[in-house]
Structures are given as C-alpha cells and as structure tokens.
Amino acid sequence: MTSTTYAERRGQLTTYFDRTAVEAWARLTSDAPVSKIRATVRAGRDAMRGTLLSWLPDDLSGRRILDAGCGTGALSLEAARRGAEVVAIDVSATLVGLAAERTGTIAGGGSIDFRVGDMLDPSLGRFDHVVAMDSLIHYSAADIARALAVLGERTDGSVVFTVAPRTALLTVMHAAGKLFPKGDRAPAIVPITLGALDRRIGREPALAEFALARTHRVNSGFYLSNAIELSRSRA
Ligand SMILES: C[S@@+](CC[C@H](N)C(=O)[O-])C[C@H]1O[C@@H](n2cnc3c(N)ncnc32)[C@H](O)[C@@H]1O
C-alpha cells in the first residue's frame, strides 16, 4: 500500500502554492473579479474565515495566535486588528511575501510576525489559539490528527481548523477539479469523516485535555468545508 507521508504532501503543496497556483490564489484572495464558480468559493471562504474568527475571544489583545498555513494572510490581519500577536506561517514563500505586502499598517494594536516554513516547527513557541483554515484539507486523517496533537501540545486555549467533509465527496471533487484550470489543479483534497477524525483525536495522548467543542459546515457553491474547534476542557 502506498500512502503519501506528511513530508511528501507538504512538498507537493509547497510546489503548488509557491509556483503553480500563485496567480490564482493571489486573485481569489483579492477583490479582483473572478468567475462565477470562484466567486462562490470566495464567498464560502469569507464565511469560513468569519466563523473561525468568531470562535476566538472578541478582544485578542496580548494573545498569541498561530495562523497555520496563512496563505495571503487575510485571517492574520483580522486577528491582529483585534489586538492579537499573530505568528503567520506558510510553506509558500511567495504567498507569505504577498501577505506581508498586503498587510500595511495594522490598526488595533496587534502585530504579525510572518514566517516561511512548516506550521509544526517547534521553534514557533506556545500559543493561546491556533487557527488552520483550509491548510490541513490536503492531508490524510492520520496526518491531521498527528498535526493537531503537535499543535495542541503548544496551545493553551483552542485549536480551530477546517476539514473537507466526506459526506459530499462529489462536491469536493468538483470543487477541487473546477476551482482551477487543468494545468494548475491542487494536490487532491482528502475528505474526512468527522466521527473517524474524532476517534483518532481521542487516541492522541497530547489531545487528552482537549474536547471537540463545536463544528460548523460552510457550503457555498463550489466551496465545502467543516470548521472544528478543539478546546482545552479546563479553559
Ligand atoms: C488552501 S490554502 C489556505 C490559506 C489560508 N489559510 C486561507 O484560508 O486563505 C492552504 C495553505 O496552507 C499552506 N500549507 C500547507 N501545508 C502546510 C504546512 N505543513 N505548513 C505551513 N503551511 C502549509 C499552503 O502553502 C497554503 O498556502
């Protein structure tokens, strides 16, 4: 049986998000006009970002937040505007560069420390909250659970992230196929069953103190993603 390891998949994603799809991502994450299909994706992603941000405390002053797989940085910017000290990391140096360019001056007292690299790098330190929006969706359930365990160990509050739900496999496949033209298709999205992921999370000792606090599905045309919050039970 062949399975892609975390490192292999991260390598494919680096190539994809640092070269193949840079133009498409820059456009999708801007205000520039896009096709009808991509407009549904943009709307879904806006709604998802809003959901994840609404699960964090309103006042983020002095809170350390990891934006794991920050892409072009929209979530980081909103968190920083609410006062957070954000560490924004992505394997794509090009997208991180674009994010830094787009950030400008931050009103609201927060800050963003942009980094190029792996979200699991231990040198990033401890966090109050970790957010991983659509950055784990290309990894296997086993790799997601392991990544959550690594991140959870360094998190005092909550880890909020998204997965592609398995129940609407067809929609996900359509979305993956049609979002970008043939030449710059993404590495496959891995649909996940919430129950199965929950069981894997339950088997991770590092996540023993975390509970699945809430979930929310966003389905907007060709965008389909499930938000999940893992919270330290004592929080
Ligand atoms: C679908 S994009 C989402 C970007 C951003 N979170 C957003 O919602 O706009 C996924 C991002 O995760 C990044 N990524 C994937 N695996 C990563 C890893 N192991 N460490 C850091 N970034 C990663 C990719 O380079 C890509 O920019």
Automatic annotation (TrEMBL):
<dbReference type="Pfam" id="PF07109">
    <property type="entry name" value="Mg-por_mtran_C"/>
</dbReference>
<feature type="domain" description="Magnesium-protoporphyrin IX methyltransferase C-terminal">
    <location>
        <begin position="132"/>
        <end position="232"/>
    </location>
</feature>
<protein>
    <recommendedName>
        <fullName>Magnesium protoporphyrin IX methyltransferase</fullName>
        <ecNumber>2.1.1.11</ecNumber>
    </recommendedName>
</protein>
<dbReference type="InterPro" id="IPR010940">
    <property type="entry name" value="Mg_prot_MeTrfase_C"/>
</dbReference>
<dbReference type="InterPro" id="IPR010251">
    <property type="entry name" value="Mg_prot_MeTrfase"/>
</dbReference>
<keyword id="KW-0949">S-adenosyl-L-methionine</keyword>
<dbReference type="InterPro" id="IPR029063">
    <property type="entry name" value="SAM-dependent_MTases_sf"/>
</dbReference>
<keyword id="KW-0808">Transferase</keyword>
<dbReference type="Pfam" id="PF03602">
    <property type="entry name" value="Cons_hypoth95"/>
</dbReference>
<keyword id="KW-0489">Methyltransferase</keyword>
